Amino acid sequence: MPSEATRKLIRARLAAEIGRIERSAPTRVALVYPSPYHVGMSSLGYQSIYATIQRMPGFACERAFLADEGDRPGATIERPVTYETLSELGQFGILAVSVAYEMELAGLVRLLDAAGIPAFASERDERAPFILAGGPLTFSNPLPLAPFVDAIVMGEGEGVTERCLELIADARTKADAIAALANEPHVFVPAVHGDTLPTPGTCDDALLPATSVIRTPHTELSNMFLIEAERGCSRGCTYCVMRRSTNGGMRLVPKETIFERIPKDAHKVGLVGAAVSDHPRIVEIVTTLAERGLKVGLSSLRPDRLKDEFVHALKLAGYKTLTTALDGPSERLRDLIERRGREPHYLQAAERAKKHGMDCLKLYLMVGLPGETDADIDECVTFVSELSKIVPIALGVAPFCSKRKTPLDNMPFAGVRIVEARLARLRRGLKGRADVRPTSARWAWVEWVLAQGGRPEGAALAAAVRAGGRFADYRRVFGELGKTPEGTGYAEAKTPIAPERLKLKRQLATIG
């Protein structure tokens, strides 16, 4: 049984939830999120699958999360239980796991270890739950996840997940379930398929939009109702997994549908999608919601879409900070990664943020891009300094990590020392001019190893987690696989380049 502190915490969170579906059924599924509650309940995909399972005849869904401090290296966590009935994970026949990105694999290992369930599928017998995974990670590279699960739903889960759960529940043995799932399109069964990944599935547009079910103040997006305004993207950014070639590009949700699906008692609405600001009716949607007295959040704002009427609508909807992506530190690199944002767009965004009374302009930036030099960083310093004369600037900086199934697939990591030097150069240059908030270069390298890795990297991750989960642990286990945090540089990348990367290859060659 969980401790009294855990039971008290779960009771308080359940009492604060709006929209939870109370249900009991013969087949119980534990829906597991390998990050803490406040992260998992902010995930639209996780909530969408929750609602899907609760609609299935004969099935009931219970939720489980990584403990609040469980994502910290060396953390000791209690045996996890579901929120609905305080049941241990080993009491379920099926665990459905949603994985958003590479670093959550560590949370999955911690959860399974704490639950007393063998983390590696090869070590589990018939008494152990069947583990079915899915989530955003499957659009890129789920191979590091493969050692830990029995099957993976690739791509969009609507429709496929229901079929998989029914096959698992109906199977006499785990082997029968694995054999049945191996014949399903868009389902990856590691024990059968090896490293051959099926194509990601695309759901019927009639199933859009996904919406959140449960609202709670205990999330990253407190009490916000989430709804898709679109799915996919029409743009071709070379680093992005959700670029226009993924799952049919951009699929729009009509504004009338968005308005119809928002609960009457909602006070805050989050419009979700890879390119929400590209919705042709976005200004009208935001303005209408603001006029209804709702606060509105958008998951992405493109700099070239920040026209005056749009920024005005965002201000009406409660925005205090205007946020967009600078992405590359220079115009040359933004062109290289095929971003449409240009200096005039950012200058206009700063002017409009000031005009409409925004507190600041927040820009997201990547460093360590292929071919990047100190001159690119210096250009960024000069340009951001100019922007800071118009409106306060907050700069969120993340090291570039190449992802599978993108034109920049297999590009090496720049190196921890190089990235840290670039971050230091940015901080020095922008001291007193902008609030620079970088993420860790060391953990970005860990993410890159997993993003570009396979089953061996997944197994090594488990060893690192069990050793304490510190960076030194990852450096040691990945070092045994020949990976170094100091990078190799672009010139040493040895991989065939797809046709869509030829332009990039030629441009990089001119950099030297």
Question: What structural keywords apply?
Answer:
18 helices, globular, Transcription Regulator spoIIAA, 512 residues, 36% helix, alpha/beta, Rossmann fold, 6-stranded mixed β-sheet, 4-stranded parallel β-sheet
| Radius of gyration, whole Å | 23 Å
Average pLDDT, to the nearest integer?
93
Tell me the overall shape. Answer: globular
The largest sheet is: 6 strands, mixed
Strand order of the largest sheet: 2-1-3-4-5-6
Are there runs of 5+ residues with pLDDT below 50, and where?
489-512
Q: Assign the CATH topology of the largest domain.
A: Transcription Regulator spoIIAA
> In which range does the helix fraction lie?
25-40%
Return the CATH class of the largest domain.
Alpha Beta
Which architecture of the largest domain would the CATH scheme give at its second level?
Answer: 2-Layer Sandwich
Report strand %: 5-15%
Distance between the amino and carboxyl termini: 61 Å
Number of beta strands:
15
User: What's the number of helices?
Assistant: 18
- Tally the structural domains: 3
Q: Which class do the helix and strand fractions yield? A: alpha/beta
Task: Note the topology.
Layout: H1 4-16, E1 27-33, H2 37-40, H3 44-55, E2 59-65, E3 94-98, H4 104-115, E4 130-134, E5 151-153, H5 160-170, H6 174-182, E6 187-188, H7 190-193, E7 224-228, E8 230-231, E9 251-252, H8 255-261, E10 268-272, H9 282-291, E11 295-298, H10 308-316, E12 321-327, H11 331-336, H12 343-355, E13 360-367, H13 374-388, E14 393-399, H14 416-430, E15 434-438, H15 441-451, H16 455-467, H17 471-479, H18 502-511
Parallel strand pairs: 1-2, 1-3, 3-4, 4-5, 7-10, 10-11, 12-13, 13-14, 14-15
Antiparallel strand pairs: 5-6, 8-9
